[in-house]
Design goal:
homodimer, alpha/beta, six-stranded mixed β-barrel, about 20% strand, disordered N terminus
Amino acid sequence: MVTNGSVLPGRLRARRALIDTYQQPVVYMRSDCAVCLAEGFEAQAQVEVVFDGRQVPATLHRVDADWLSHDEAALSETAWQLLGLQGGESLQVRHARPLESLKFLRAKVYGRKLDYDSMHALIDDIGHGRLSDLHLAAFVTACAGGRLDEPEIVALTRAMVDVGHRIQWPLSPVMDKHCVGGLPGNRTTLLVVPIVAACGVVMPKTSSRAITSPAGTADTMETLAPVTLDEATMRRVVEREGGCIAWGGSARLSPADDVLIRVERPLDLDSEAQLVASVLSKKAAVGSERVLIDVPVGPTAKVRSSAAARSLAASLVSVGAAIGLQVEVVETDGRQPVGRGIGPALEALDVMAVLHRRSDAPQDLRERALMLAGRLLEMAGRAAHGTGLALATRTLDSGLALVKFIAICEGQGGLREPPRAQHTEVVAAAGAGRVGAIDNRRLARAAKLAGAPHDPAAGAVIHVRLGEPVAAGQPLITLHSQAPGQLAYALAYVNSQTPIVAIDPT
Amino acid sequence: MVTNGSVLPGRLRARRALIDTYQQPVVYMRSDCAVCLAEGFEAQAQVEVVFDGRQVPATLHRVDADWLSHDEAALSETAWQLLGLQGGESLQVRHARPLESLKFLRAKVYGRKLDYDSMHALIDDIGHGRLSDLHLAAFVTACAGGRLDEPEIVALTRAMVDVGHRIQWPLSPVMDKHCVGGLPGNRTTLLVVPIVAACGVVMPKTSSRAITSPAGTADTMETLAPVTLDEATMRRVVEREGGCIAWGGSARLSPADDVLIRVERPLDLDSEAQLVASVLSKKAAVGSERVLIDVPVGPTAKVRSSAAARSLAASLVSVGAAIGLQVEVVETDGRQPVGRGIGPALEALDVMAVLHRRSDAPQDLRERALMLAGRLLEMAGRAAHGTGLALATRTLDSGLALVKFIAICEGQGGLREPPRAQHTEVVAAAGAGRVGAIDNRRLARAAKLAGAPHDPAAGAVIHVRLGEPVAAGQPLITLHSQAPGQLAYALAYVNSQTPIVAIDPT
């Protein structure tokens, strides 16, 4: 293809389109501009935008509106950031070159096995944003339904680690934990890290922000302390305190994982292989050595049966071993939310209540955190088998965990007070009875409609637990919001259809 | 979900974005507009735009630029047309409702078989544009690589016919032909239809426009006569003349096929099942009963080996029989272009030269058309076995085919003269030798870079055939273009890399 000969009819001036297409890079060009005509670009063409040695693949959307002129190329937010533009730069836009890795994608679609080198070629292109959304969806589909065997899952996981940045620690063992999501309020990380760090165990924790949930661990921690740390700051905190709770998104750790998650969510395919590769690649990239994985099981959790949890656990352990990670899995009760708050600040308040050993602190959150911390202390060799829970409990109850948490927050930039929402609304029980079920998914959605995680103060508080007796008119849920409109909208959602809290008449 | 309660914070005014996203409906909204905030829309959210009882699924792109105001929703061209808007209408934008058919898509991804009802539910949603591009890519991937068995291909084909419009004819047998693409200049349809119609055989031909090629049959015919016919006009022409050559895109014939093709092309997956369902569903929808399918085989054609052609032929014949179509397949030489012109007008000139029996008419185009017409005359029972070719030849040589072609053109709105390009450039042989190979794909691309099919006069003319001797400096290809810039660009492409016409030294 002719991409840089003298016949090229010219370049285009960079302009920020101020259009958010999530992670899909889009370039907007006048359909009658010289470059579109000369290159024969059709709408949705896969092109490459080139500036200063960087090449960003993008989808072309052709514009005939006057906001764009004939010598401009406007870029969606993702493309703008990938190219690091200021505005006015001279850009080249050309046909995307065919990717060699697509032949491995086709091979997988046709049912063949991929070795490490093929996986690496594909994952390298995925991690660098070179595959279109259609190709990403094809890859995810071709790997779902048990179509990856264990050697392929290992190759995939290794490749995901190898194409990104990898953090190394001078200390050992480096401990980590992970929860296979789907359970609102399950913010044990903010308790587990200070407990084990206070016991002298190393746990440099990186966490994600919410993707589809009302709060990620990083969002919750951010209401208490800064979480966007550069690697030097993170190392300094870990060296001094033994642990940190940082946002993991800025370090290009397993970058292909972030790209794949973007298409996996809307496709809603349960792919055990992708889940295992996603979780373990992030852990390996961040330098963890021993990982405890919490798998909540319940009808409205991500994993819905003990059988599914056991299959997942077996795969996590064996793939982990193949890439050098010691993995243990604990199956937990996923039938109802953990703690009371759902949303960044409301969850942070639960965490602080547990650390302060307040009498009204949510006991379920405390107990889960102690159980996980105990297991980690045993895995790290800090406590003998069967004694981890007691050590964790002593560490929390003595106030050492609180002291450690405050020190970690200060190291990350300073402890702060979580914000409070301006508007609240109580949802009360229509009749008397006993709590029969709580719908995790609809409760999470209500918290999001109230404004979480965009407004850190927004969300929901659940006042009842499974099996508790309830009187008519007793508060079940309190919605928290920064805007009356959102509060009304969340309330209408809670009151629609089947109740989020099912009350069985007694 | 609350979608029409009193808490809805309002509607948005329709505005034409004048952005061409090909067939992907996109809605542009200010990220801080009341609806985005209240609904919790994220970028790339799948939403439904509702106006006047119509619901169009769309992808949300969030805008922060000033060209869009907070009470407006701007729509891409496809979305605009699907909703039939004028501008200023009051629109509702809400979360897309979950599609029941996605559970069948997931079942297929997980390796289960789909029956007719499941296929129908999926194809109905696909044909109505309710699936996102990601889901379409997942469907195409899940069906590729031999993952549909024959009953599933039959179910898919039937469903594709059933969810669209179906044309019925009062005459029988209704004949049809199809070419499995990839061969530039193979415009036999414009000869076959007048020959068989002149012999009293019914052939109401609908053809497609170019998708990735420099000309579709409808594009070529359009340089000679109107092809966008309503069904009444088409019926009138067929009743009077026995045949027509119309564009098939306006009648919603197998609409899911058009949607699937849009994602299949960029994925570049060779899916025999999808190809069979695509071809046969279009034929059944247009009311054909007996279909002759031309499968060119060659290293740069769509089908690259005789073995692949035989497998495809077997599937076409048996799936055809299952849905009531009598299918015959003829394997033809696909090693080089047919005729000389590549591009709508240039191909039309070849066709007219054959119809006029001019001495310089391309003999390969003439011979292929006569062979196909002869087979069709035999399939229709109009000629005894072994005599069809002679009847076709007599019909062409007597001028009856030309008379019939002119009558068909007049019926469709009037015969016209194809346009001629303003600029041409000759590509000459660098050295002497013999033509060893012609790259169909690169030749087609050169014709597109010259402007075809957007400029009907643009394209390429190839002056040599395989095996012919060539002198140094002898013209090999002439490029035709309406713009000097495009001509230069096409020329640079032809002169780059390996030559399109390979000359073996003698």
